[in-house]
Amino acid sequence: MVTWHTEVDLVVIGTGGAAMSAAIHARLEGASVVAIESGTLGGTCVNVGCVPSKTLLAAAHTRHSALTNRFSGVPSSAGMVDLSALIEQKDDLVGMLRQTKYADIAAAYGFDILPGTATFTDAGTLLVDGRPVRAKSYLVATGAEPHVPAIPGLEQVDYLTSTTAMELTELPASLVVIGGGFVGLEQAQLFARLGVEVTVIGRLAPHAEPELSSELRKAFLAEGISVIGDRAATITQHEGLVQVTTRNGKDATGERVLVATGRTPRTEGLNLPAAGIATDERGFVIVDEQQRTTNPAVFAAGDVTDVPQYVYVAARTGKIAAHNALGHDERVDYTGLPSVLFTSPQLASAGITEASAIAAGYRCACRFLRLSDVPRAIANHDTRGGIKVVADADTGKVLGIHALADTAGEMMLAATYAITAGFTVTQLADTWAPYLTMAEGIRLTANLFRNELPTSCCA
After folding, report:
1. Cβ neighbours of residue 355 under 8 Å, at least 6 residues apart?
2. Alpha-carbon distance 169 to 27, whole Å?
């Protein structure tokens, strides 16, 4: 048990990806650590984010594959969905991982998890449920939660968020999804593939390469998902149905509406101003390159800060924050940072886009290869999507690799390595790539920088 008045080296507020990474790495250096959790152990990823959404997506993709079987010699079928059983299976998985990857890990590394609500009373005092917990340094890693936009009429309807949508035990007949980002698109396809009539309001993957977001839109439309590339303006309810009207006067009606317009930092109750911890205009905790806040004794990491909201970014920033709290001088290098949108096909990226490269002052050269020219995709009878390589026209250095393909996420480790290693397009084109893998498409795309002629299967 924790002794309340004994000072430890590091107090970590939260138990999500950033918090656990920080606690683990601090313990590896021999530091004493206490973690504080006011809610459910494990934070966003295991409870309401990555794990539950991806297991439900896998289930939905399995059903869809049976319904849209591309191989005539292997008959398949899919019946109605028992959502209650599916949610129970998801909850069992979450519970198992919460125990084995969080509670058991804390015990193995030797740090306590203290239940309670943390509140700063001044620059050097942290209370947990009114009692002081003292440390040499503190880390705020409380994560983020779904943002609820100020759309007139929204407060009058029983709207869903990504959290509550994954708690449903019965499928709605129809669903309107507000938001075309990662969460909105994954949830839209998840419910559509389970048999729900879905409409998405918003630009699809607005920060992706336009060639790829356009192809993703085609894939959604081909699955019967309606897309209105506009912003929601008002929401009304009539006879049990929710009607969303866009700024341009288009209407979408559904039995339920799901709001997926980003996330907001979870800092309520921490009383950050009392500790001299500054936040930006959206409420995210401001940190310097060492993850230190405006209070030199307090660090912050993960989604509570304004960083890309991926669990591996949270883990890296948590690790670096812990090291710096213990006297090191480390910084996060985002070169080649990968991202994956787990729709089908997946939209994955590493490095920067063409637009970002131009904004950074590069003279860009880009090549785009459709999956209809990738042997693996041809063999799979699934040529939706493509691959784009962004390069510096003057040096040939690879700046970004972007793909829309059913296994695009599996390609990103190779893409990240090529970027961080400083490969040129010529080196990438001459790299060994196993035939009939999707990652081979990266090499084939790089080869287009030599000429725009088609290539043989193995050339």
Report:
1. none
2. 41
Neighbouring-strand partners of residue 369 = 387
Whole-angstrom distance, CA of residue 215 vs CA of residue 402: 13
Instruction: Print burial letters for 442-457: b (CB count within 10 Å at least 16), e (below 16).
Output: bbbbbbbbeeeeeeee
CA of residue 201 relative to chain centroid, distance: 20
Instruction: Tell how far CA 166 is from the center of its chain.
Output: 16
Q: How far apart are CA 14 and CA 301, in angstroms?
A: 10
Instruction: Reply yes or no on whether the pLDDT at 400 is more than 80.
Output: yes
Identify whether the C-beta of residue 259 lies closer than 8 Å to the C-beta of residue 138. no
Q: In this structure, are residues 218 and 227 in contact, taking their beta carbons and an 8 Å threshold?
A: no
Could you tell me the CA-to-CA distances from 133 to 40, 118, 139, 285, 298 in Å, in that order?
Answer: 20, 9, 13, 21, 14
Q: What value, to the nearest 5°, has the Cα angle with vertex 299 and ends 277 and 39?
A: 85
Percent pLDDT > 70 in the chain is 98
Element (H, E) at 398: strand 398-405
Residue 1 clears pLDDT 80, i.e. is over it = no
pLDDT in tens, 120-142: 999 999 999 999 999 999 999 99
Query: What are the pLDDT digits (tens) for 17-63?
Result: 999 999 999 999 999 999 999 999 999 999 999 999 999 999 999 99
Distance of alpha carbon 211 from alpha carbon 209, whole angstroms:
6
Mean pLDDT of 72-100: 95
- Read off φ and ψ for residue 51, nearest 5 degrees: -65, -55
Report which of 346, 261, 342, 328 is spatially closest to residue 291, judged by C-alpha positions: 328
| Residue count of the chain | 459
Whole-angstrom Cα distance, residue 296 to residue 109? 27
Distance CA 118, CA 133 (A): 9
**Does residue 2 carry a pLDDT above 50?**
no
